[in-house]
Each structure stands twice: as C-alpha cells, then as structure tokens.
Amino acid sequence: MHSPRFDNLFLRELPGDPEAGPRLRQVDAAWSRVDPTPVAAPRLLAHSPEMAMELGFSENAIRSKAFAETFGGNALLPGMDPYATNYGGHQFGHWAGQLGDGRAITLGETVAASGQRWELQLKGAGRTPYSRSADGRAVLRSSIREFLCSEAMHHLGIPTTRALSLVATGDDVVRDMFYDGHPAAEPGAIVCRVAPSFIRFGHFELPYARGDVALLRRLADFTIARDFPWLQGQGEALYCGWFTEICRRTAEMVAGWMRVGFVHGVMNTDNMSILGLTIDYGPYGWIDDYDPDWTPNTTDAQGRRYRFGWQPKIAQWNLVRLAQALSPLFDDPAPLQAGLDAYAERYAACDRDNVAHKLGLVECREGDVELMRDLHGLMHAAEVDMTLFFRALVDVEHDAATLADFDHAFYDAGKRDQHRPGFEGWLARYCARIADDPLQALRRRERMRAANPKYVLRNYLAQQAIDRATAGDADGIAELLDVMRRPYEDQPGREAFAAKRPEWARTKAGCSMLSCSS
Ligand code: AMP
Ligand code: MG
Q1: Is residue 17 flagged as an active site residue?
Q2: Burial 1-29 (b: 16+ CB within 10 A, else e)
Q3: Residue 427 belongs to domain spanning
Q4: Do 345 and 493 belong to one domain?
Q5: What is the pLDDT of residues 54-66, one digit of tens each?
Q6: Which residues lie closer than 8 Å to 231 by C-beta, 6 or more apart?
Q7: Total domain count for the chain?
Q8: What ligand is nearest to the CA atom of residue 91?
Q9: Mean pLDDT over residues 203-216, rounded?
Q10: What protein residues have CB closer than 5 angstroms to ion ligand 2?
C-alpha cells in the first residue's frame, strides 16, 4: 500500500516524555510515545472518499487488508511514529488538571501532494499514559457519530477536524451507557481523524497551571510556526496577533454552528481547537424544533451549560481561559483583551451575516436582527423545525408567503394554530422587507440556499445508521455520508433524509439525548 510522506514535527520540535508506553503518569512534557494496542479483527466499515484522495489512498488501497490493519491500530506505515499528547482543561467550568490524549494516538504528520499538512490520529486505539481510569477504547455507536459528523460539517462549510476511516475492531468494549449501573458489552471501533493540528486550548492551560513558562513558550512558538505560518511579527506583537486570530476563527466556527443548528454538547477547553476547528464529536446534537435551551448531553442536563443558545458566550469564556494561560508571555496583558474584543466583534459580524444570508437580504440592517430574533421566538414557542422552516423560506413566493407554505415544519398542529397570528404578522413584515431589498429573486434564492442546508445529520438519522450497523449492515453509514456530501442541494429521491424528526425519536436514547459514555 502507498504510504504518505511523514514529517513528525510535533515529536521533533517539542520536549517529550523520557518514558514510552501506556503506564499511567503525570508527564512534564508535550508528548509520550505509545503504540496503538492491537485489536482482534480490524474491518473497514466506511471511509471518506475526499479525505482518502487528499492523502493519496486509492480505492484498491482502501479495500486492502493492510489499510484496515493500519487504521485499526495493528500495523504502522513507514514514517509513522505513534504518540499521545499532553493537555489539561476546564471541564464544565472547573479546572481538571492533566487530561491528555486518553484514547487518541497520533500516527504521524503527513504532507499531502497539495502541500497541506495533515495529522493522522486514531481515536479508540487503546491506553495511553493519559487514559486515567478508562480503557482507551471507543464504541461503535460513538465512532459512527464522530465519523459522519466530521465529514458532514466539512461539507456544510464549517471548520472541523476530518475523518478518513471507520474501522470495527472485532473486540467488545464495556460501557454503562446511561450511568445507571448496567454496564454492557458493545462492539468497539476506531476512527482515524485528520486535521492540520489537534492542538487544543488545554495544551497551553496545562503548562500555565504548572508554572512551566518555558514549555508554554515553546508550545506557543511551535504552534505559530507550524499552524499559523502566515502570521508576521515577533515577540508580544506576534503572540497578540496569534491570539486575535484564534479568537476570530473561534467566532467563525461558532457562528457556523448557530447557522445550521449544531450543538457541540461538551465545550470544555480541552475540546477547543487552536485552529478554530470543531473537534471531539461526543454527545453533540442537531436542533430539530428550534430551542435555544436544548442540549443533547444528558451529563449536562442540570445546568445545561452547553445549551445551543449559550455556545457563543461559552466560546468566549473558553477564550478567556486561553488568554489567562497565555498571559505569562506578556509583560502587559492588555493586548489579550483586544483579542477578546475581536471575538465579540467578529461574532457579531458573522451573526449579522447569518441573518442576511438565511433571510436572503443583500445586507443586514438594524431592524433585521430583530426580525430574526422575533422569528426565533416564534419558532421556539410553536415548536418549529429549524432546518425545514428556513429551507421552506427559500422556496416561498417572497411577495406572497403564507403559513401554509410551512405546514410541514410544525411538530404540533395545536401550537401552530395558536401562533398563527404571530407567524402571519411575521411573514407580512418579511415580505415587506424583501420588497425593499435590491437583490434579484434568483440571486436571493441562491444566497439563501447556500446558507440554509436541506440535509443535516439529524440525531435520529445517525441513530438509524448505528442500529443498522450494529445489526451487521454497515451500508447505512456510507449512504448517509453520501447524502451529507451535498447538504445544500436538492437530491431527488432522498427526501426521506430531509424529513423532520419522527415522533418515535422524540425521546429515544441516541436521538434526543446522549450521554458522555462513548
Ligand atoms: P472528552 O470529554 O471525551 O473530550 O474526554 C475528556 C478526557 O477523557 C480526555 O482526556 C479523553 O482522552 C479522556 N477519555 C475519554 N474517554 C476515554 C476512554 N474511554 N479511555 C481513556 N480516556 C478517555
Ligand atoms: Mg476531548
């Protein structure tokens, strides 16, 4: 099998743990060498055609035994040099100390023909020094979810880590899915995820918390040089420009989530990428009926810290933690505040952009933010499907829309009738606003179609693919992925994938709620 070229800069340029292997320990370095633990019977269940092509794997290579062995953790390609990285993090608002890659093992950094650097990382490949009390493994259900959502987000145009492959291990993994004292064996799997960098806010927080400014500085210099090579300047000015860039990217990422109804579910600082990529797909979910207070994560059901509507401010809270971690690099931390201000500014700009694009306006004027806010209020009160409503808004007659055009987006006819006057009033305002907008009708629809996806990875759709795969038929994964490759296009014959959540999925585990157990 062809092997990509590897150039393992993280290992080469940052200080490593003198000990290799998975013995649990506190580590005063950036990484620890550790090999994947072999599995019984690796079998490829799905792959991303785009990612395979980018990395130079042919269809034949993908189908080969060697591919499943490599990306199931049983074999290495020339140049791979596996390691786990060290980071800390704030979990649910509290400092958690050393966490690290407890079940992620990086195989190496490749440089693709395109010149792009890609780190290949197995998730679920066995114990590392950072596994704490856990097993380093991942179950099939959560691996399918990570695989599908990574690629779905990419095709939606939202910054994300990617996924190359999904391999069944042939080994069982024991999980207590509902944390109710009923552990059960489930099939295990491994995703090979791919990103230019898997560096997280928590990588900087850990040396900060330990007072290790030397390591903090080396990590910052390394990250800037490898992952932000376009940044200019030196010293504090460079660090400041870098932090501002992280803030801007984070704002763009979260605005993307808010546009399509994605709820990350565990926005701990160890799950925040320095490149502003969506990372660590765990108990995430997608908004069906519009509800800013919804979180899919049952572990967070009490405080709902990571609810849909709070994501922009939680991202800012996380950036404040990062600013604090970087503060030893500054004599005067004032420039860090400028970065945080840049977050607020960029988020506000992206939010206005979302309004303009989702509503089909050439620009977002003062009253338009309110127009959108009022729509959100109505959608929440009347239990309206977010994706279906906005998509229907693309196709209505923009001078004569009626509520009947949106009938299929309502979950409850009673609530629809109750809020009919509200919606009719809103549609009248909207039509008047459109009449006052210079965009030509065709261009308007184009603009709206590109901002309002027809297909999103609804929780129940992923769960159906999981149920099928668990019963032995993995084809549902590739089928669903194929739909998600063109989320903004109408795909005749695939209407079922654009349907609203069926009633049975309202309260079913995996569809409406997910635990962190994965
Ligand atoms: P998460 O909430 O999934 O982002 O995980 C938080 C921390 O727990 C990270 O350090 C993970 O590597 C670690 N972790 C989660 N699940 C496992 C597992 N099954 N085995 C080892 N470490 C894990
Ligand atoms: Mg994590």
Answers
A1: no
A2: eebbebebebbeebebbeeeebeeeebeb
A3: 361-449
A4: no
A5: 999 999 999 999 9
A6: 224, 238, 241, 242, 245
A7: 4
A8: 1
A9: 98
A10: 271, 280
